[in-house]
Hints:
This is DUF3619 family protein. By secondary structure, this protein is mainly alpha-helical.
Amino acid sequence: xxxxxxxxxxxxxxxxxxxxxxxxxxxxxxxxxxxxxxxxxxxxxxxxxxxxxxxxxxxxxxxxxxxxxxxxxxxxxxxxxxxxxxxxxxxxxxxxxxxxxxxxxxxxxxxxxxxxxxxxxxxxxxxxxxxxxxxx
Length: 136
């Protein structure tokens, strides 16, 4: 009997019920036929044997698979240059005329012709009509 079975905080009826259940269980265990007892013992031996054998089958494959993934990633990074760096270097060259045309910022006032700033209303009208006709 366990020491927790005789705790004083359990009601007397509950302790009596547990004792009766134990007696019935032991009595039923004594009346089991030999074939069932043998099958239960075989199942118990099989369960204990399978619980003791380590199942490292997945762990055996995780280490080589992880190493292969790291090698493949390193090979891709070494042999293939990053595409963003290559395109940003092309657009950053000052001698490229396409890069100068694609500049989204307006030109500096010091570098442009002052006559362009005389007809700003016309340029506003032109931009409004070009964007309006592009959506049609």
